[in-house]
Amino acid sequence: MKCKLSWLRIAAGGVVLSALTLTGCKTSDDAAAAASQMAATSQQLCSYYKALQTTFQQTDELYQLNEQLNSKPYTAENQQLLKNNEAELAKRAQLATDLSSLSEGFGALSASATPSNVASAASQVEADLDKLSPVKASSTEQGALKLAVQQLASAVQEHKEREAAKAMEGAAQSLSDLFAKETEIWNSTEQVYSQIAANLASSLVDANVTDNGAVLEVALTPFGLIRNGSIGDMNGKLAPVAKQQITTKKAAMDEAYRSATDGMAKALAQMAQRIQALADGKPMTERRAPLSLATVQAWVTQVNGVANTLAPASGAAASPAKSGSGKAK
Amino acid sequence: MANALENVQATFLNLDGQYNLLLAACRTQADRDALSARYSAAQSAYEDCADQLLEDDDAAVAALSTQLTTINKQVSALTTQMGDISKVLTVLDQALKLGQQVMSCLA
């Protein structure tokens, strides 16, 4: 749990700091563009975390299926551990949403914001940070962020716009760094989801409860043909092909996720660089949100597409808490 | 962080992938219960590890992680020993013990 809250704190700090940076910009158009891009990036960050939450919910369902079908135990304690990790994602998604809203709000204020407005916003974020204090975090990161927010508030109240913008740089970079720092943990949870799903799917093929004729569609569909509903013995013959399809699609799922994570990391890093440039008094040359956000969106769409397909039969949103432990039978 | 978490993850996923065959090889309810307990322990170790967002830049953790990498090679081939479930359980216990040591170093 070493960097969980520190991430939240820095993300929250990033919102305020980015807002304050706007007052340090010489050109309101540049400030508005930065705010808009930060809002878009934050919104995509929220979508990223929500899609990951979906994989947690599906993992929970897979474990429950495994318990019923394959006698793999899934204790209430282990379910709670999974739910705890899912809850951490929910916090990050909410913070990213707040970050996006605040960025949009400050973007709208950029042309007319007054120091008192921004100082008030800084105070509000300091209060938000204090609310997060029950969760442990790196003391170094906590201290640095607190100091940055205080310096920002002070700089704005003293009309030291450049100092405020400079103070924001570190926080924006920290947000990017901490996302990168957490990448491995989220990579791992996605890999567990995809592997558990693949293992279960493979066992269902072995149990001959799958319609393996679906793999024939690649040969039939181009010619407008539909396979016979009953393929008899051929179902068994197609089992190795079905298993290969599981392996191939699992690899594609993992790759899509890795691309999305890389894209998100690059987008956050780019935003940190752009904000730094603004703080250094350089013009905002890029008017679009980071292009790598497109790979994030592609993965989010893929995950949500699968979730929507499953929705009628899935209990993901209301997965019941377990009360007992599994027993091998 | 990566190596420690990856190794604990590998123990769990390797066991998950072979669980059905190993369970079928168990001859007694005691063996099945023992295997089931190891599965729960491996899953718990993974979820705990993920929860703590481990960092394995510590030398002791790195050494344990290396040992876990080695034992995971045996875990990935448990089905080759399923004629003797006691050996399977021993290998799993070694992997789980190393996982616990990693966790205790980082707690």
Quick take:
Chain A is an all-alpha fold and 329 residues long. Chain A contains 10 helices and no strands.
* Order of H and E elements of chain B: HHHH
| Mean pLDDT across residues of chain B | 85
Radius of gyration of chain A: 24 Å
Share of helix of chain A, binned: over 70%
The main pleated sheet of chain B reads as: none
Biggest interface goes to: A-B, 36 and 30 residues
Strand/helix succession of chain A: HHHHHHHHHH
Strand residue content of chain A:
under 5%
> Would you count the extended β strands of chain A for me?
0
Low-pLDDT residue intervals, each spanning 5 or more residues of chain B: none
Helix content of chain B: over 70%
Seen as an oligomer or otherwise, the chain set is heterodimer
**Ends distance of chain B:** 13 Å
Q: Could you describe the 3D structure shown?
A:
The complex is a heterodimer of chains A (329) and B (107). With 329 residues, chain A is mostly helical. Chain A has ten helices and no strands. The longest helix of chain A is centred in the middle third of the chain and has 46 residues. The relative contact order of chain A is 0.18. The N terminus of chain A is likely disordered. Chain B is mainly alpha-helical and 107 residues long. Chain B is elongated, with a radius of gyration of 14 Å. The interface between A and B is medium-sized, with 36 and 30 residues.
What is the fold's blueprint, element by element?
The complex is a heterodimer of chains A (329) and B (107).
Chain A: H1 4-24, H2 28-70, H3 76-109, H4 115-131, H5 139-157, H6 161-206, H7 217-220, H8 234-237, H9 239-279, H10 293-310
Chain B: H1 2-25, H2 29-52, H3 59-75, H4 85-106
Can you tag this structure with a few keywords?
heterodimer, A: 329 residues, 10 helices, elongated, disordered N terminus, B: mainly alpha
